[in-house]
Amino acid sequence: MRGGGLLPVAGLLGVLAAGQWLLPAYHHANLVRIMVLALYATGYNIAFGYTGLLSLGHALFFAAGLYGASFAATLAGLPPGAALAAGTAAGGLAAAAVGVLALRTAGVAFMIVTLMFAQAGWLAILALGPWTRGDEGIVLPDAARALAGFDLSDDAVRYPLALALFAAGLLACLWLVRSRAGRVMVAMRENEERARMLGYDPFRVKLAALAISGTYAGAAGAAYALMFGYAGASLASVQYSILPLLWVLVGGAGTVAGPFVGCLLMFYLIDYASSLTSATLLLVGLALLVLVLFAPRGILGTLREKGVRWLP
Amino acid sequence: MTDGLHLTSTRRTVLKGLAGTGALAAAGFFPGYSNAQSAAPIRLGFQLHRTGIGASYGRWYERTATAALKRLNDGGGISGRPVEIVFEDDGTDPARGAEIFGKLATQSNCDLVFGALFSHVVIGTAPRAAELKVPYLVCSEGHHVASGKLNRWTLQPGITDVKSQVQAMAPWVSSTLGKKVTMIFPDFAFGYDHRDYFSAAMKAQGGEVIAQIAVPPTESSFTRYFPQIPAETEVLYHVMVGPAVLTFVKELGEFYGSGGHPQLFGFIDSLEAVDFASPGLEFLAGSHFWEAMPRYRQADATPAETAYRAAVGVDDNGAATGDAKDVSTYSHMFSVWETLSVIKAGMEASGYAGPADRAKFVEALEAMTGFAEGEDHPQGAKTFNGKTHQAFGIQNISKVEGGRLNVVHKTSIEDGMYPDEADYTTQPL
Amino acid sequence: MLLALMEGLVSAAVLALTAVGLSLTFGVMRVVNVAHGEFFMLGAVLAWFVTQAFPGAPALGFALALVVCPLCVAAIAVLADLLVLKRLAYEPAPTIVATIGLLYVLQQAALSLFGPDARPVAPPFDFRVQLPWFGYSGYKLCVILAALALLGLVWALLSRTRIGLVMRATRIDREMARAFAINVDLVYAGVFGLGAGLAAVAAVLIVPIRQAHYLMGADPLLLSFIVVIIGGLGSLRGTLAAALLIGLMDGLLSTALFLPPTVARIAATLLVALVLVFRPQGLLGKAAA
């Protein structure tokens, strides 16, 4: 299995690259969003799917990237490249800071502690109204969205950039989980006591996993702000902690490409359901119920269990 | 205007929200329809709060849009072309709002998009409108358009913004109700607009806001904030939004009981879609509300207002005809009707023939200076500022008497005017 | 100050009741039920329908709602358990997806059948307790008492009856319980129904104070989870203590320290999170084995 998974991942990225020329305008724009959000979900999967950390606080890390990049661009006047880096770092730092405290707990207590930190962050965004405009949010000026002469508000520019970010994230994730560090992470998920006896420090491993995961979230948040020109408190609400969990579970926790598949599927499920009926949520809910009955480990997870071993 | 394939579904299916893939599928089922003509319909996208926190408004916005569309098409459409509206649900969510804006513009091939109410959806969507260079006409009453934060493709021709509304209230409040005001408002952007603009306007009138009580969003119980109201308060100014508003008003009543209390002045936003006959609201008797358009039919209602009321299916008490419990969002939904009128005027003035003329359409709107009262504008006459993209109209102050609202004062348009904060016409199209 | 205390007590009482329901499903079945808040919402929405059927007699309608709504909601929950959760063998991950699906279905059902508006329900009786400083709703005081009485009943059920014994046995060791001829499937369905029913009762109690609205389930869901974990999984007293803590904290912080309410809420949230950081088993929970 070593080195496996690279081929299908490369195939997926190749298909996405072809999308730049082949997709109709609407789906082309959708894919930009999906790739940015899938980057977020891929990071979530590193903490949840591989290391077994069920966090409900990732919205905080996403928001750290979102506002980190926004304020870097507007208040500090940094160019978009630096703003992207600042947002990415903000996400990683936020995750590390939360991790230092929250990783004293495990299981459901970890879930609730991260949830509460994220709720405090969301409230803080509301309380900082003079800068964030709370729930209403802020629009990034066009000048903040021009990266080295490229206009990030242009779909033709955004798509390759989103693809580059997503590809980097996906390949890094593939490399990580195939590495020794990745196997230690999985060991934490499967049996923490055993890993400890083998000489690994669970706290450090989990903290590293959470920080990496937060870095992904920060990068996705920063890209979201710079590409779509908007930062608002609704993107920091608990919904944005539950969504990556849902995408990961639908696509397959602990699979490299699962988060992308889940994100893509949920996006088009909602989109398609809303074109069929005004009772959109009913259809989406039923689809989820059916899906989970037939694929309890997520799409890729269940396929892999059924013998399609080559899936990443 | 566009390839015939997308223009094939009947108006009825389009109204049901069947668009995009649905329309494509319909094309397969009804191949006989697919012949594009010179009189091909104009397609308008509608960003609808069908689900999410804005659903109460969304339902009435959809009804109003449907009624206005019927009138428009019965009257010959726009430039002789029939008009269709494609509704898409944005879940009252800014992220989804931007996505469906793209869907309406690039997949349903709409000529423009209108209809959004909630400020965060408008602000989240506006950048997408500028990217795609598709006109975006919002019905939101937020100050975001006139403040210059948005862009040249975003306009608000159908409803007065909140800054103008609150400013217009100040002279009457200070001269009639009292000079010492305590404000209670939600602790987020919409509340800050009230806080800042009303405080300033009150000061200009020689009055004073002596306390400002910001209530956090997600609060579901308000009683504990009321002791913060200073005893010398003469007027209690309240504005709340969201599903907890009724609780707010009820608890205020419980707090003061039958004893003396300051004069109450509120924005009807607190009670849009809420029945005044609801239990617990009795204590509102004698208090005053801002209304953009009187929910209860007034004795001096204009023929245009009466015709509009009948067309959108609202009875004399502001509820849906046939269901007294289904109360309308009467002070906001007229903006959908009037925006559609402005779309017609703008398209006809610019000689709009298709998406290539979108910029000409925006310029035609910017050249407009106002709209006369009438069936196209039943809420009343408006002036329109082409530089700030914002309309200004009259406002009403109504008193709660005998379980209904009676208008006691109408402001002038000038009461709500303020210096320009932006000039969108300097931006490139 | 006193007013903040009273308001906090009302919230805490209702929250405790909702959270105990979640604590049961969480504790016995070990499932993260994301749809718990929707069961709460359904209780309130159904209460509106029931009271509407008796326009002349709010007290009768309300009393009926107090009985009918929890039963209906419990029935829906049992159905969901048998049709979906049981087939997933109550595994944590798929259960989260399934209950999110259930949440969407219930929310849409409420939106389509009940509508998007917040609708009020008349309290069964209406009297004000006039205190020297301010007036207070007598109904709110009764809510506190009713919630306490119900919590007492739940406690008695769990610790004094055979049903409670069976539930505890199932919680401690599912396989062992099966070996002792306990019908685990039945216990799970019953617990899921009971948990949902408790949320519904809490909602019926609160709905004359707040209103029925199709999105009202979100806050109770988050708060219940927090309360259950802070209190300590499986500890009824802990849940009650945590509900009091959460219900009172930000009100008191705000009033006592003169903090702006939103800032007080941030402080309260962080403080409660820190409680858990330094006492991961919860206030009254036993240290993890």
Structure description:
- The complex is a heterotrimer of chains A (312), B (429) and C (289).
- By secondary structure, chain A is mainly alpha-helical.
- Chain A is 74% helix and 3% strand.
- Chain A has helices at 6-22, 25-50, 58-74, 80-102, 107-127, 129-132, 155-178, 180-190, 192-197, 202-228, 239-251, 258-276, 280-294, 299-305; strands at residues 138-139, 146-147, 150-151, 230-231.
- In chain A, helix 3 (58-74) packs across helix 10 (202-228).
- The radius of gyration of chain A is 19 Å and the shape is globular.
- Chain B has two domains: 4-160 and 333-393, 3-Layer(aba) Sandwich (Rossmann fold), CATH 3.40.50; 163-329 and 394-416, 3-Layer(aba) Sandwich (Rossmann fold), CATH 3.40.50.2300.
- By secondary structure, chain C is mainly alpha-helical.
- Chain C is 74% helix and 2% strand.
- Chain C has eleven helices and two strands; from the N terminus they run H-H-H-H-E-E-H-H-H-H-H-H-H.
- Chain C has helices at 2-29, 36-52, 58-85, 92-114, 138-160, 162-172, 174-179, 184-206, 218-231, 236-257, 261-278, and strands at 128-130, 135-137.
- The chains are: A mainly alpha (312), B alpha/beta (429), C mainly alpha (289).
- The interface between A and C is large, with 41 and 48 residues.
